Hints:
Elements (H helix, E strand, L loop, with lengths): L4 E3 L5 H12 L3 H6 L3 H22 L1 E5 L4 E8 L12 H9 L4 H13 L6 E9 L8 H16 L3 E5 L2 H9 L3 E2 L5 E2 L5 E7 L4
Parallel strand pairs: 4-5
Antiparallel strand pairs: 1-2, 2-3, 3-4, 5-8, 6-8, 7-8
Amino acid sequence: MGVAIRTAGESDRELVVRLLDESFREDPVSRWVFPGDAYLARTHHKLMAAFTDIVLAEGWVDVTEDGSACALWLSVPAADPAGAGHDEGPAQVRAAVDPANERVELIGRLTGEIHPAGRAHEYLWMIGVTPDRRGEGLGTALMMPVLDGCDREGRPAYLEASNADSRRLYERLGFTVMTDRVLTLPDGPTMWPMWREPRG
């Protein structure tokens, strides 16, 4: 099945925010950042909006033509170990999203600390598929054009898997867990940093 994909623009911002909000409501990391159903429902979309704005400004968002899935990417130079994680970045996100919630800032700082430095790479920040379309291969379809480009150009790729199901998908696409950098959030779930060397 062919999946039509295009690069999102500013006019797609609300679509992307809605997709990410729907896709990550049940994610263990989202539930750790915003504990409790009412709190999650009230606040989660604000964090997804902040992430969308960062990537629209500094990277790119691929979206399926039917609006059912999206992937947020950043090209990270060798000199920038944390991808989006400038020192003030997590604090700015917290201030914009939920100033009283330390976990909003902490998640940015902790993922920035485990982000590998030294080699330029493509960073899959997030990938979201609307819940009623999961299992149709949309995530793979979104990722493969970028990974194929990485293979052609000799660039690695990186991501953090936030649940076991996504980790298995990424392993099938050639990513391996960086076991020395696995992150267990304080009183929370585990995140698996994953690296993919370009294929010859």
